[in-house]
């Protein structure tokens, strides 16, 4: 079975292949992916801590998923009404979106993943609904949200046993085409030429290379600190901070997950960071496969964001909240076994 660790290592290698970073930056990036891969497999071995199948209540989980979806749709509509435009076709208005509305609207993604992992919805309808919902989320103009919705839905169906490996590869190809389409639309609207995929990878990795060589440990925890406080208006957004450090204003720049860690804590921090992250997700993966329902739904979203973080980093309050939620679910699953003894 294809696991998150396989995809994380594969995508990390693709980023390295299509970039031109310095030797030590290359080795640090590759080492991070390898550490994650190894620690993920170590984490899987602790699945014996959870054996309580009575934790599952799929009807309850379905309702939770539906509630989150409704909340997400309401705030997505409010966000569009706030700017009175469609950010997909006018990227300039994205900076006027309401930060709070945008954050809450992404609850839709979590809700849909939980619903898919809990319900008996057949594969065909699940795929059709996912494509419809992705078109809806696409209106807000953030490619990341669309990609996370698609990937998390695929993971939920895959680990439920609804789709096979061959279908998984086909669906990931569709995700790539949708991402390519959105990137082309963005370039056309901005009247910019170039390869929408390779140029993005090259730009992101060049930023990572600069951070590694010139700002190694220089941010002093500020990037992850601002990931939380920026939503409260108490700090700049972390990607804006990176852009400002590079002398660029009015835009945000993604640093890669490795760049964010190296910039905040230094090169050696990749060992505990990716070691802990990999072990946690490896352990949670086994729980999600075993219990399904809300456990699988949340894991699917975490897995999607982890893959996306290879480029963007884990620097959003709602994403950090999802990891914390996954941790709480793991703790609950472990303690439930002990309480039933």
Automatic annotation (TrEMBL):
Pfam families: O_anti_polymase
Protein name, UniProt field: Oligosaccharide repeat unit polymerase
TM spans (from-to): 7-40, 64-83, 95-115, 127-156, 168-190, 210-234, 241-262, 268-287, 294-314, 320-335
InterPro entries reported in the protein's UniProt record: O_anti_polymase (IPR002760)
Lineage of the species this protein comes from: Archaea, Methanobacteriati, Methanobacteriota, Methanomada group, Methanococci
Keyword terms: Membrane, Transmembrane, Transmembrane helix
């Amino acid at each position: 079975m294809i696991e998150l660790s396989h995809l994380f290592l594969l995508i990390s290698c693709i980023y390295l292949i299509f970039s031109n970073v310095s030797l030590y930056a290359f080795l640090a990036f590759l080492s991070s992916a390898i550490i994650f891969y190894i620690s993920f497999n170590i984490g899987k071995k602790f699945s014996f801590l959870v054996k309580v199948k009575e934790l599952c209540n799929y009807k309850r989980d379905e309702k939770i998923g539906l509630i989150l979806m409704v909340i997400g749709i309401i705030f997505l509509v409010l966000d569009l009404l706030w700017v009175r435009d469609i950010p997909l076709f006018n990227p300039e208005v994205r900076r006027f979106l309401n930060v709070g509305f945008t954050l809450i609207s992404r609850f839709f993604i979590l809700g849909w993943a939980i619903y898919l992992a809990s319900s008996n919805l057949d594969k065909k309808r699940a795929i059709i609904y996912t494509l419809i919902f992705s078109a809806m989320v696409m209106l807000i103009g953030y490619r990341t949200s669309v990609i996370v919705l698609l990937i998390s839905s695929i993971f939920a169906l895959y680990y439920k046993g609804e789709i096979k490996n061959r279908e998984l590869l086909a669906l990931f190809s569709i995700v790539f085409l949708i991402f390519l389409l959105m990137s082309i639309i963005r370039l056309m609207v901005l009247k910019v030429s170039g390869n929408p995929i390779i140029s993005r990878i090259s730009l992101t990795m060049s930023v990572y290379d600069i951070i590694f060589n010139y700002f190694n440990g220089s941010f002093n925890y500020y990037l992850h600190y601002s990931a939380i406080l920026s939503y409260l208006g108490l700090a700049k957004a972390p990607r804006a901070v990176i852009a400002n450090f590079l002398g660029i204003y009015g835009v945000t720049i993604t640093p890669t997950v490795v760049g964010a860690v190296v910039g905040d804590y230094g090169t050696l921090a990749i060992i505990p960071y990716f070691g802990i992250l990999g072990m946690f997700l490896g352990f949670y993966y086994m729980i999600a496969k075993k219990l399904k329902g809300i456990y699988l739904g949340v894991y699917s979203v975490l897995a999607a964001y982890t893959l996306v973080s290879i480029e963007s980093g884990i620097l959003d309050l709602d994403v950090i909240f999802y990891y914390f939620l996954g941790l709480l679910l793991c703790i609950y699953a472990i303690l439930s076994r002990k309480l039933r003894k």
